Amino acid sequence: MVPRKSALENMVTPLLSIIIPTCNRAHLLAPTLTALTQVDLLLEVCVSDNASEDATQQVLASFASAFAALRVIRQPHRLTLIANHQAAMRLACTPYMLVIGDDDAICPQALLHVIGLLESDPSLSAVYGSFDIRDLETGAHRAFRRPTDQQLRCTQADRHRLFANAFMMECVVARTAIVQRYFAHSGRRHPLGWLFLDALIRHGDILLSPEVLVVKADFADRQGYRNYERWFQDLVHLDAEAFFARDDEPMAGRDPAADKVAQFLSISAHSAVSHGHTLWAAHFLERLNVLQSPHWPTDLAGANLTEACLTARMAQLAADWDATRLVVEAVDPLPALAARVPGVTIATLDQMTPEDVVVVARASSLDALAGRIAPGRCAALDDLAADLHWGSGA
Q1: Is the model's pLDDT at 183 over the cut of 90?
Q2: Does domain 7-219 have CATH number 3.90.550.10?
Q3: What's 309-384's CATH class?
Q4: Full DSSP string of 226-241
Q5: pTM for the model
Q6: Can you tell me the distance from the alpha carbon of 71 to that of 273, in angstroms, rounded to the nearest whole number?
Q7: By the 8 A CB rule, do 341 and 326 touch?
Q8: Would you say residue 263 has pLDDT above 80?
């Protein structure tokens, strides 16, 4: 075993690049860079600024001489999330790299250990570790995510076992040469997902470890930052599907990619509920409904989630028709639910026009709307609730 305290601490040139994609978050980037200057580890820091309009460039300029090397690129126009990650990856000039968020912190002693493992074993392409999640404002511990419960070494022949048993594969120290040659120039690939792992495991073994390498920040609005968006959920699904499509021997049973996405959605629903964001949780549960997943979070129950999911379905109905006004029958709980739908005004049935979207309490009431509004533009609350299968009030 490589000792945690070793000659690596006396390195005169950096072995590790910290990769930071950022966009309009100067207020978070500044303390993150400050914390990196205080670790007992020689670092190269690589930042891709995704056309920020705030003080990001001024913050970066203030750290120009703070690291062994600070490499910065400012994008002239806004890139996709993936492309900005990969632009930062292409800046690295050290043997190893680690991607972190612009509000995250590293665990230097654990990283020294990982670098030692990679230095002593050329057959390893990467080491995946765990990450801790803390509250950005209070510093309180919120959650712990790890890819495996015990150290696990995997070769390309272990793809099935790896896919079936590993999760939250986000925290990885990888060989820079492999990443830049086989991954970092394709803007269509998820920056830290299964296709990233595929690029690594095809060119060496990977080691999974429960050791914490990164502490990720969490705050009230973070859960809605990207996980809430369907494009990101679809990206997670496509990333898993693409990884599995490269396997010559498909895994028997359920769609394994769908199961991975279901795990992601279940964890996201729990996180949203912990922050009190039941509407976001409802969106995650809606996707689980579509997937008919066995990973249903049965402990998430109650009338609040049911109401949130009904609100989400009303919001989707309005979005499908690009409607800015929602007409609802004055029957409880419809008015209260409709009031939670973002981006629309609320009207009553006597104010209805053919351009509105209408929700009534019961399907039997839809007959009275025949000829007054297109069938697709109206719905009944009992129909919307028909397949909600959790908690009270469903």
Answers
A1: no
A2: yes
A3: alpha beta
A4: TTTSHHHHHHHHHHHH
A5: 0.66
A6: 39
A7: yes
A8: no
